[in-house]
Amino acid sequence: MDYTRSAVGDPPPVEPTGERILVVEDDSKMQRLLSSQLAARGFEVIVAGDGETALRMVASEKVHIVLLDIGLPGIDGLEVCKRIRARTAVPIILVTAAERPETKMTALELGGDDYLTKPFHSGELIARVRAVLRRSKLGGGATRTQGVVDAGDLQVDLEKREVRRDGDLVKLTKMEFGLLHTLASQPDRVVSYEDLLETVWGQRFDDVRPVHVHMCHLRRKLETGPTGPRHIIAVPGVGYRFRVSG
């Protein structure tokens, strides 16, 4: 059975976007369908039929976004997502045939950027791919700000997407930098959980756990000393703020 529904009157092929999508899907019919829909919008498509192949391709090929099915043979999509995110910040959209809220939350907590449930419309697929790519280019969707935010031992270059602590470069994932960018570009302003979800993930969820999980990882990388966080301050029940001094 087909898992996507093609739109009536789909637009003709457009000029190449210059962006390469890795489609990770074990069903050959679905591979062909997704590849044709994406190629018709100008994307270059490469395909992997299992998790091991996908991991090798992410390591060896230039990939701008991964469209990753969760129900893969061998290593499932959630584990593949986890391993990809440990290596790189390449955007990942996870796809599943099951509508389970807990699976969706797990996918996002493991570093997924978005989530699609089969069956989905081809127009929704393209819109989500473009939205995730756009957020990736803009540092997670936060408003771009020129200059460096200097917070004593911590320097955040919002334009170059570089973070240094005591002069040493700190490696952040795309989600972590998106959260930091959103907070540091408006220091001392409390940003709500809902606004962080909408800015960094591009949508709002009833569950704010993804914010807490990624913020916990970010704090471990940026904060020093046993006396508590100096820069990323939690406002219980509301959100977080970035403190420049203190």
Describe the structure.
The chain is an alpha/beta fold and 246 residues long. It has two domains: 134 residues, Rossmann fold (3-Layer(aba) Sandwich), CATH 3.40.50; 95 residues, Winged helix-like DNA-binding domain superfamily/Winged helix DNA-binding domain (Arc Repressor Mutant, subunit A). The protein is 37% helix and 21% strand. The chain contains eight helices and 14 strands. It has a five-stranded parallel sheet, with helices on both faces. A four-stranded antiparallel sheet has the order 8-9-10-11, with helices on one face. Strands 12-14-13 form a three-stranded antiparallel sheet. Strand 9 and strand 10 form a beta hairpin. Helix 2 packs parallel to helix 3 and helix 6 crosses helix 8. The longest helix is centred in the middle third of the chain and has 16 residues. The chain is elongated. The N and C termini lie far apart (59 Å). The N terminus is likely disordered.
What's the order of the H and E elements? EEHEHEHEHEEHEEEEHEHHEE
Strand order of the largest sheet: 3-2-4-5-6
Euclidean distance between termini CA atoms: 59 Å
What is the CATH top level name of the largest domain?
Alpha Beta
Rg, Å, rounded: 19 Å
Q: Structural class given helices, strands, pairing?
A: alpha/beta
Topology, number of strands: 14
> Based on CA inertia axes, which overall geometry fits?
elongated
Q: Can you tell me the CATH superfamily of the largest domain?
A: Response regulator
CATH architecture descriptor text of the largest domain: 3-Layer(aba) Sandwich
**Count of the separate structural domains:** 2
CATH names the topology of the largest domain as: Rossmann fold
How much of the sequence lies in strands comes to: 15-25%
> Segments where pLDDT lies below 50 for 5+ residues?
1-9, 139-146
**Quaternary status:** single chain
